[in-house]
Specification:
Blueprint (H helix, E strand, L loop, with lengths): L1 H31 L17 E7 L6 H9 L8 E8 L5 H8 L2 E5 L9 H15 L5 E4 L5 E2 L3 H10 L4 E8 L6 H23 L11 E4 H7 L8 H13 L4 E10 L5 H33 L2 H10 L1 H25 L3 H33 L12 H5 L2 H15 L14 H4 L9 H14 L19
Parallel strand pairs: 1-2, 1-4, 2-3, 6-8
Antiparallel strand pairs: 4-7, 5-8, 6-7
Length: about 475
């Protein structure tokens, strides 16, 4: 038994804890370098032609607002078109998208394994390249996204400067709806403000988020849409980096707004859906990126590997750490080794209070403080959310672990109708004041309003 205990001790202290330390250390470095300014792109000399693509399944509650928001862009109207693929819809998503001003293709595929955004996008790009050639770049939005009017212009600046693939600043439509939406919203804001800012400053790549991802049309011309797992954004990042040496750059002034899940159940579903695809990508594209680092000697390759490393890290945190330390406490109590029992309890306390609770609360405070001008909510209203921010990692880790060891089925997740959505509609006869009042009322009641559903099918490999 002593030999077994010694082997577990060596494995935990010199393997598991080292992996955890490696994964978290780089994130701490990014936070400590919060003062570094992200790269900005000069005003473009040329207006390039963009195709805006939106995969949607049963998104009748939000699709029209998204299309109308894009049409309000300050970019020349003749230099972009909006394409919506209504994928296996059983509602009037397609009709509403057409009425709002989009070019719509409807896709029906009875195979449940193909009910993923990747297959919908593959179909859509085949149609675009065949029937609407001539675009220089594409921007992919989700059906619930809204954006700032200058979003396309900002992406055009980056594209004109030579960027082939880019992401914007991920903000939230409903960050102050409740604590659940606040925690999720702050998570994405802190990722932009710390990790993406620093990566941009040193000219390194970052990881794509599905909302507002921009990429050159030449990529589609070469590969088509070759990312068919539901984790299409992460897969696209890794494939372009590993296969084409294309880094995903960060455009800090291109702001896109996402609808955050408003219940713990929906949040859990969202991150559980991430697990399968990201887990597979770690062992395929992630390991490949790690090996390519020693061939190409570019930090982005190692950085993307470490980003995907968080998936097995979550599993270790949920399974290995509790099991090992419970075993350790029981075994050493049974042999009356109370000195090591107390040392172990002290270590657990330090890990939970300093490395987990304190670190997460401080970074949430820092992220909100630095980005308060962009956050569409009073900072004082987010204080309870900041204090409960460590709960995000618990939910995230549990959901990821469960998703890794299961095959999630398709789930409906409530969409939230917010004031920002309503503001996309034309004001009624009462004028702008009536529209404003209606928007404010909707924002007040948004916690009780059932929106549409998240539309990406949930398979063994999925993410948002």
């Amino acid at each position: 038994m002593e030999t077994f205990d010694y082997i577990l001790h060596i494995l935990n202290d010199y393997v598991i804890l080292q992996i955890l330390g490696l994964a978290f250390t780089i994130q701490i470095v990014y936070i400590l370098l919060f003062f570094v300014k992200a790269k900005t792109y000069p005003k473009a000399k040329t207006k390039h032609k963009f195709g805006i693509v939106i995969p949607a399944r049963n998104e009748k509650d939000v699709i029209a607002q998204t299309v109308k928001c894009i049409l309000k862009s300050d970019y020349p109207r003749d230099m972009f078109d909006i394409f919506v693929v209504a994928d296996n819809c059983t509602d009037d998503t397609a009709e509403l998208a057409r009425k709002a001003g989009a070019i719509v293709y409807e896709r029906f595929d009875p195979d449940p394994k193909h009910h993923k955004a990747g297959y919908a996008l593959k179909y859509l790009f085949e149609k675009i390249m065949e029937e609407h050639p001539g675009y220089e770049a594409f921007i992919k939005f989700d059906a619930d996204n809204l954006m700032e009017p200058d979003y396309i212009s900002r992406m055009n600046d980056a594209f004109d400067a030579g960027v082939k693939c880019a992401r914007g600043y991920s903000n939230s439509k409903n960050i102050d709806q409740n604590i659940v939406t606040g925690i999720s919203g702050i998570w994405y804001i802190r990722d932009c403000r710390f990790s993406s800012h620093f990566r941009s400053a040193i000219g390194q790549g970052t990881m794509l988020g599905g909302a507002g991802m921009m990429f050159a049309a030449e990529i589609i011309e070469k590969h088509g849409w070759d990312c068919l797992t539901s984790s299409d954004d992460t897969e696209f990042t890794m494939r372009r980096l590993n296969e084409d040496k294309i880094k995903t750059m960060y455009v800090k002034d291109a702001v896109v707004y996402e609808d955050q899940p408003s219940t713990l159940k929906d949040t859990f579903i969202r991150y559980r859906r991430m697990a399968g695809a990201l887990h597979s990508l770690f062992y395929t594209q992630g390991i490949k990126s790690f090996l390519l680092f020693f061939v190409r000697w570019k930090w982005t390759y190692l950085d993307m590997f470490l980003t995907l490393l968080f998936i097995p890290v979550c599993v270790l945190c949920v399974i290995w750490l509790p099991v090992y330390y419970v075993y350790y406490l029981i075994y050493h109590s049974m042999i009356s080794d109370f000195e090591n029992v107390f040392k172990c309890l002290k270590l657990i306390g330090i890990m939970l209070s300093c490395a987990f609770v304190l670190a997460f609360i401080l970074q949430a405070f820092l992220a909100v403080g630095l980005e308060h001008k962009r956050i569409k909510a009073p900072v004082r209203k987010l204080i309870p959310t900041i204090l409960l921010f460590p709960a995000f990692m618990i939910i995230y880790a549990l959901a990821i672990t469960l998703g890794v060891f299961s095959k999630p089925k398709w789930k409906q997740v409530k969409r939230n109708i917010t004031a920002m959505d309503i503001e996309q509609d034309d004001p009624p006869d009462g004028g702008a004041d009536d529209a404003r009042i209606g928007a404010e009322a909707a924002a007040t009641q948004s916690a009780d309003v059932g929106g549409g559903t998240e539309t990406e099918a949930v398979g063994a490999e999925t993410t948002e």
